């Protein structure tokens, strides 16, 4: 079985990487070249997301980066050797030299787990790691993996019976390594053992009530929630998943000497574990939607930016391209990609939660969420509505799809029942429940801006700029924009001047943030690439370039965008900047539509800098918090 996931071309005995992230990139490239990974950036992002849950570096120079990812085409294991060693954050503080990168398909077949079990038994085999590091060729290394060791002398299993429980947050590598270590240690000590694995393929090998009753001790080595109440009254030790890998015999000895487990005194750590697991799952769902949305944002944004920058002309109605020209066709294609990006975000969030049955209702829910005409609003809910739609659809469809149905109906559930009920559910939710408050919100915001239009310009700049930077095409942004456009007709062009300075701040700020944050390792590769496109979009006033960042990390990005946009708008009002066309960004200033182009550019640059610095600071704080929590 192991040969189906590992081959000589997936073994590199001399990695060039000198950092942990570089190891991920180099090994992911090996998988991509062999056609095992379709979207390298997404796979690396999923690897890094798993790493945030807990470091995958072991003692003895071994590291097991792994992830279940929608980017994996077929399961595979890439193996790399760093001769000089990499600072990986292993528990023993030593550099890591031997890397096994496990690529598991999200929602696909699970036969890769069998290979992992084989690999686990090799890694805890005496002398294997040293022999593998000494291999001269990939063929030699593969031969070591396939080598069958002579069976160890059997030890009579007459000392008693043990139960083990293993599980790690991702349920891929550590779960099965720990199980193998417990089985090997128990056999060497003369104990029979049954190990329950709480892995990515579900809970397997669960002990019966009779087995629990006759067990001499219980070893729970888990970094995730498990049912502890069933072990009440038994000798029990609870450890992290890495403990038996490091010292299986020691863990068993501690369990045999432990006091009987009192379930009533169990601290509420399991609740924290459940919350942590829910957060990690939510992050994974959002990442799946964002990763599929990014190509649409980049493609559509760059095509629109290119057409406006080259073929656009400032008019009273905004930046316009001559009808029938080549650049109008380019613009039309870009607009199609932009229309699709919000449904794609919602669809693939739902897909991550409910698999294929959630895809169609997710797409439809995202489209309805972004089209205000369905519920009488001037604009849709933007990316925030798409996230809500994707999550609602995903959980609803998963609930429908996992009910027990008659065997005649079951085949229809994933292709008919779940998609149709999911579509009706999300359509009804937005049209009849969510839509009316959104429409009312937009009317209320427009009235608020109208009442403030004769008031303090600083306060107005704060409100107008904050709305511009909050949701990038959503109801807040759209109300502020439409209000400013309407004021042009009344001869009050200062409102559009403030909006024109605030509109590009979010994409330009996030583009700058990716440059500043590159050395701090706070942005993933996909975000860094998206940052380049966001910069180009910001130059021509397309605020949607910042959506991927906001959708992926809203708590860091949205406050940064709002603050930067507020600064730009307040400065624009203070300098008396006006704009006579319904568009924003540096391109409008450079084409002469703004009365003070240099000051306008200064406002945009200042807002951009504020957004970048705040985003970097907040993301760094979040990273430190995660590292502290997993230390």
Summarize the structure.
This protein is of the alpha/beta class and 631 residues long. 58% of the residues lie in helices and 10% in strands. Pfam families: PTS_EIIA_2, PTS_EIIC, PTS_IIB.
Number of strands: 12
Whole-angstrom Rg: 28 Å
Morphology call? elongated
Percent of residues in beta strands: 5-15%
Oligomer: single chain
**What structural category do the secondary elements indicate?**
alpha/beta
Distance between the termini: 36 Å
Unreliable residue runs: 268-277
Number of helices: 22
Write up this protein.
With 631 residues, the chain is of the alpha/beta class. It has 3 domains: 145 residues, Mannitol-specific EII, Chain A (3-Layer(aba) Sandwich), CATH 3.40.930; 107 residues, Rossmann fold (3-Layer(aba) Sandwich); 356 residues, no CATH class. Strands 1, 2, 3, 4 and 5 form a 5-stranded mixed beta sheet that branches. A 5-stranded mixed beta sheet has the order 8-7-6-9-10. Strand 6, helix 6 and strand 7 form a beta-alpha-beta unit. Helix 12 packs antiparallel against helix 13. About 2% of the residues have low confidence. This is protein-N(pi)-phosphohistidine--D-fructose phosphotransferase. It catalyses: D-fructose(out) + N(pros)-phospho-L-histidyl-[protein] = D-fructose 1-phosphate(in) + L-histidyl-[protein]. It is found in: Cell inner membrane; Cytoplasm.
């Amino acid at each position: 079985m192991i040969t189906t996931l590992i081959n000589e071309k997936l073994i590199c005995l001399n990695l060039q990487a000198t950092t942990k992230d570089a190891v991920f990139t180099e090994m992911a490239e090996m998988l991509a070249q062999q056609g095992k990974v379709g979207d390298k950036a997404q796979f690396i992002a999923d690897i890094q997301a798993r790493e945030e849950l807990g470091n995958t570096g072991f003692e003895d120079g071994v590291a097991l980066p792994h992830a279940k990812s929608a980017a994996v085409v077929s399961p595979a294991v890439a193996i790399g050797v760093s001769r000089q060693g990499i600072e990986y954050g292993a528990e023993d503080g030593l550099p890591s030299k031997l890397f096994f990168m496990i690529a598991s398909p999200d929602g696909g077949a699970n036969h890769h787990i069998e290979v992992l079990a084989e690999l686990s038994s090799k890694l805890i085999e005496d002398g294997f790691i040293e022999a593998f590091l000494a291999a001269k060729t990939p063929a030699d290394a593969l031969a070591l993996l396939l080598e069958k060791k002579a069976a160890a002398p059997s030890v009579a299993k007459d000392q008693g019976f043990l139960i083990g429980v293993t599980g790690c947050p991702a349920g891929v590598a550590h779960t099965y390594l720990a199980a193998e270590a417990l089985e090997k240690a128990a056999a060497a000590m003369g104990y029979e053992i049954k190990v329950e694995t709480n892995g990515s393929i579900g809970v397997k090998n669960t002990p019966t009530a009779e087995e629990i009753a006759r067990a001499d001790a219980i070893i729970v080595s888990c970094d995730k929630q498990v049912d502890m109440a069933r072990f009440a009254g038994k000798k029990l030790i609870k450890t992290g998943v890495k403990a038996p890998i490091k010292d299986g015999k020691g863990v068993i000895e501690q369990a045999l000497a432990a006091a009987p487990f009192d379930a009533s005194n169990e601290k509420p750590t399991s609740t924290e574990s459940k919350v942590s697991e829910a957060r990690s799952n939510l992050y994974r769902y959002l990442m799946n939607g964002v990763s599929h949305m990014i190509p649409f944002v980049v493609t559509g944004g760059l095509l629109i930016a290119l057409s406006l920058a080259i073929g656009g002309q400032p008019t009273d109605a905004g930046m316009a391209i001559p009808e029938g020209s080549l650049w109008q066709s380019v613009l039309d294609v870009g607009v199609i990609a932009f229309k699709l990006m919000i449904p794609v975000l919602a669809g693939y969030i739902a897909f991550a939660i409910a698999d294929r049955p959630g895809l169609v209702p997710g797409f439809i829910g995202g489209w309805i969420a972004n089209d205000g005409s369905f519920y009488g609003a001037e604009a849709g809910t933007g990316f925030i509505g798409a996230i809500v739609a994707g999550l609602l659809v995903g959980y609803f469809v998963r609930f429908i799809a996992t009910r027990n149905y008659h065997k005649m109906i079951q085949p229809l559930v994933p292709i008919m029942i779940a998609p149709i009920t999911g579509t009706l559910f999300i359509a009804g939710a937005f049209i009849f429940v969510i839509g009316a408050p959104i429409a009312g919100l937009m009317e209320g915001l427009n009235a608020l801006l109208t009442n403030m239009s004769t008031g303090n310009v600083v306060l107005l700049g704060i409100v107008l700029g904050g709305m511009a930077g909050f949701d990038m095409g959503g109801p807040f942004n759209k109300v502020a924009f439409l209000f400013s456009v309407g004021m042009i007709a009344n001869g009050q062009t200062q409102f559009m001047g403030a909006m024109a300075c605030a509109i590009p701040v979010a994409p330009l700020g996030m583009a700058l943030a990716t440059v500043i944050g590159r050395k701090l390792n706070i942005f993933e590769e996909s975000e860094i690439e998206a940052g380049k496109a966001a910069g180009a979009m910001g130059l021509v006033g397309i605020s949607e370039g910042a959506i991927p960042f906001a959708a992926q990390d809203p708590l860091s990005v949205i406050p940064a965008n709002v603050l930067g946009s507020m600064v730009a708008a307040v400065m624009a009002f203070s300098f008396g900047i006006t704009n006579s066309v319904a568009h924003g960004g540096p391109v409008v200033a450079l084409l002469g539509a703004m009365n003070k182009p240099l000051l306008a550019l200064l406002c945009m640059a200042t807002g951009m800098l504020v957004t970048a610095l705040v985003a970097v600071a907040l993301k760094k704080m979040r990273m430190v918090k995660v590292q502290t929590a997993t230390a």
